[in-house]
From TrEMBL:
Its EC number is 2.5.1.72. GO terms for molecular function: transferase activity. This is Quinolinate synthase. Keywords: 4Fe-4S, Cytoplasm, Iron, Iron-sulfur, Metal-binding, Pyridine nucleotide biosynthesis, Transferase. Its cofactor is [4Fe-4S] cluster. Iminosuccinate binds at H25, S42, Y113, I114, N115, S130, H199, P200, E201, T216. Binds 1 [4Fe-4S] cluster per subunit. It catalyses: iminosuccinate + dihydroxyacetone phosphate = quinolinate + phosphate + 2 H2O + H(+). Catalyzes the condensation of iminoaspartate with dihydroxyacetone phosphate to form quinolinate. Belongs to the quinolinate synthase family. Type 2 subfamily. It comes from Mycovorax composti. It is an enzyme of class 2 (transferase).
Amino acid sequence: VDPTLDLFEEISKLKKEKNAVILAHYYQEADIQDIADYIGDSLGLAQEAEKTNADMIVFAGVHFMAETAKILNPTKKVVIPDFKAGCSLSDSCPPPMFKLFKEQHPDHVVVSYINCSAGIKALSDVIVTSSNARIIVDSFPKDQKIIFAPDKNLGAYINKVTGRNMLLWNGACIVHEIFSLEKIVKLKQQHPNAKFIAHPECEEEVLKLADFIGSTTGLLKYTMESDADEFIVATETGILHQMEKASPHKKFIPAPPDNGCACNDCPHMKRNTLEKIYLCMKYELPEITMDEELRLAAKKPIDRMLEISK
Ligand code: 13P
Ligand code: SF4
């Protein structure tokens, strides 16, 4: 790409020319969030993708999110800046293995976190996100046997708050799994007035310390509504951009991972760049395509979630 190009301007031009909409997850870099038409958590993004009138959806997130957009709105062209932007959680649950697991527990319903492939969605009864998992699990009778996949941390958290004993698939997110408990405790001591807030994909020991647990949208709202001036934030650092924009007078401290880095970035989310967004809009590639039978099977449990989350 010509280095003299003003990418913000070029992307805005392409948006109009092609009647495109840019949907971005909160974990995207600040520039991408600033050029997006909609920024949200997984539920918000799915709802937005379903209702958009644009001809092209540019999905600044990871593969399973763009795939969900295509499942919900198949007549639109869905492009993704980097086809390799995957998700460790989604990868931890291969459909053939999960199918065998499900067959071993025929009396269980399958509740799957949206961070999974279309193949897993097609094997599920209902999809959840971190913002509606509790309500959806609660909608089943107390004695209903449930398999929860693929995130064992979110599953354990939902088990705890609902008093259930769901059978958990052994998957986890590489980003939320590596927060350093020791460093968080130290930070809390250094900032005694700070609220410690965490995403439910974090491990139980981290969640135990949290003043508030929620999806990315939930965490953002909490920082806007809280009287506190300081927050230690245990989720991917991209979310801090919107927190700082919404409350410029408040201080946001990213919770440190235990890998020596100061911030906790998702390597998949951070594959996307402004330049790749420009290129994927210009060439309308890479595009998400899907087998129609798989799409319809994966759509059923997502529709069920969207119906409950209205
Ligand atoms: P939410 O934005 O739905 O909370 O999901 C977080 C996440 O890890 C997305 O990959
Ligand atoms: Fe997947 Fe975790 Fe990255 Fe979200 S933050 S896309 S769950 S690896």
